[in-house]
Amino acid sequence: MTTRVLGLARSNVLLMRRNLLTVVYAVVVPLLPLALLTTAPDRTGVAGAVFVTLVLLMALLFPVYYNLLSMFVTRRDELVLKRLRSGEATDAEIIVSMALPGATLVFVVAGIAVVVAGVLGFPLPTNPILLVIGLLLTCVTFAALALWTAAWTKNAEAAQLTSAPVLMLATFGVTRAAFPEGAQQWLDLLPGAALEDLVRVAWFGVEPGALGTDAVTWAATWSEALPALGYLLGWTIIGALLARRAMTWEPRG
Amino acid sequence: MQSDMDAAIDVHDLHRVYGSGNSAFEAVRGVSLRVEPGSIHSLLGVNGAGKTSLLEVIEGLARPSAGSVRVLGLDPISDRPEVRRRAGVLLQRSGFSGDLTVRETLAMWAATVTDPRPVDESLDLLDLSGRARVRMRALSGGEQRRVDLACTLTGRPEVLMLDEPTTGLDPESRHRVWELIRSLREDGVAILVTTHYLEEAEALADRISIMRAGRIVLSGTHEEIVAGQPCLISFRTPDREVPPLAATKVDRAGSRTIVEADDLQQTLTTLLAWAHQYGVRLDDLTARAASLESIFLDVAEDRVAPTDPITHPATEMAR
Question: What pLDDT is stored for residue B304 in this prediction?
Fold first, then answer.
């Protein structure tokens, strides 16, 4: 299992490196929002959380979601996937090997974000374990959403359009502070908002919610992050079910 | 019936239906065939005869609607890991990422195989060493097909399912691939190969099955298939009445006389002796033994009865 996944993933990394556009989307786009950290009014968690969330979200949306979407559609249409499925590799191995490079980039970007944030004077993550769990869940979620999107994406060009709903769904939650207070409890359910809450609690030790400012102790981070993790898990399940129902390996006629 | 263990591929009364209800289409309609280790079984048929639909079920890429498939005595779907490890599949159409080189492509494939050949050995096997550093998108169709075949052989399979392996190859590469397939047979590999090149079936196959509209209508060795079919003599109809011949059918339609006979030499001798005796000139005389080509064309145009006792698959199963 692991040798096959790693062997295939190595080829996928090679292919990503050979395509300039993929490199830009996968590496440059997620790192750009780091520059926004310098524009934060102060170095508190309340100010930093939105920007750190944007960094992580871009890493989830481009290296994981968009990259897997276009990779899957292209290789499906080129019959590369069909060929792979005629050999020993299982469907799960093929999918994991394609999602793995992007998911690895998420953790690399997160590592860079910790360093950059630290250098700029922001606090270091309070509870890294919670952050890792949250990122793993979101990686799976966006990989699954990529496979679901691929099912109704005609070709690689069409992905620019068909990716819009998921891109919007993901980023919408981060803008929740601009909406009236009554809408907050609903907006909190969105993946972007849940990720932001997780960053607030697990990284900066601030209570969840767009308007929250109270500090959270390390011991309390577990319980305070629970709702956000629950929402993220919910999205993972939704993504997996959608992908399972809709996925096709053959080119769309 | 022989036990399942003897045959590397054993297909029994296989059906495959696409879709359901009114739009249902039965692409495979009760096919039975066996492939023994160390032998080549060629599946011939025009496009749309159901060859690929049948092969996909044997390969474990699709489920049968009815009937059974055993590969190495195992079920291609429920015993997938073991079947895939020991079998090699070449799809009729498949693809590779254009940005990988030949060597990288073979290395990628080798990474998926439990006990792979070294990449250099695979390159040698298909004469690709000189192209190892070339990107896949720069290869000709024939070269890509050879890379594809190299992947198929990476796991040193005991059973091969090759769907039109030489389509797109130039004549020289085609002959080399035939050599390779023959040498694999010497090593005891069981090979099921589809083709629409008659020449290929004649050159390679120990057994030939001819498919039409989802059924195998003829099956046997080359000799068996040809033996069951009449030979053909034709000439411009002379003025004098032709004598009775040991023919199965004499047709005087138009200006030509066409004689179908079981024994070409005997019928021809009678005819020529008669012509010699009476000084009759047989203009445009042609005589040909039944050939795979003529039979194939007959099958394609539905002129062969599928119930021929010598070659019907049911009798083959009973042997």
Answer: 65
Is the Cβ–Cβ distance between B194 and B52 less than 8 Å? yes
DSSP summary character for residue B280: -
Give the three-class secondary structure for A19.
coil
pLDDT in tens, A88-120: 999 999 999 999 999 999 999 999 999 999 999
Chain A residues with CB under 8 Å of B61 CB are: 85-86
The structure tokens listed for A20 are 């300039």
Give me the amino acid identity at B57: V
Residue A215 DSSP symbol: B
- Residue contact B112–A7, C-beta within 8 A: yes
**Rounded to an integer, what distance in angstroms lies between the CA atom of residue A236 and that of residue A242?**
10
Q: Is B73 helix (H, G, I), strand (E, B) or coil?
A: coil
Per-residue pLDDT for A61 more than 80? yes
- Check B84 against A87: CB less than 8 A apart: yes
Q: How far is CA B305 from the centre of its chain?
A: 19
Measured CB to CB, residues of chain A less than 8 Å from chain B are 3-4, 6-8, 10-11, 14-15, 18-19, 75, 78-80, 82-89, 93
Q: Give the mean model confidence (pLDDT) for residues A181-210.
A: 91
Angle at B56 between CA A242 and CA B109, to 5 degrees: 75
Does residue B5 have a pLDDT over 80? no
Which candidate in A86, A248, A249, A250 is best for mutational testing of the B interface (most B CBs within 10 A)?
A86
Which residue type does A241 have? L
Question: What digits encode the pLDDT tens for the residues B28-51?
Answer: 999 999 999 999 999 998 888 999
- State how far residue B253 is from chain A, nearest Cα, in angstroms: 48
B94 contact residues in A (CB cutoff 8 A)? 79-80, 82-83, 86
Per the DSSP assignment, residues forming a β-bridge with B193 are B42, B162
CB contact under 8 A, B112 and A78: no
- Report the residue of chain B nearest A80, measured CA to CA: B95
In this predicted structure, the answer to whether residue B306 has a pLDDT above a threshold of 70 is no
* Residue B299: both structure tokens together: 């099958």
Instruction: Give SS3 for A52.
Output: helix
Residue B81 with chain A: CB contacts under 8 Å: 88
Residues in chain A closer than 8 A to B107 (CB atoms): 7, 11
pLDDT class for B165, splitting at 50, 70, 90? very high
Please give the Cα distance from A109 to B242 (Å, whole number): 93
Nearest to B282 by CA among B309, B255, B314, B319: B255
Does B91 reach chain A within 8 Å, measured CB to CB? yes
Reported ipTM: the value is 0.90
**What is the bridge-based pairing of β-strands B66-71 and B207-212?**
unpaired
**Burial environment of residue B87 by CB neighbours within 10 A (0 to 12, 13 to 18, 19 or more):** buried
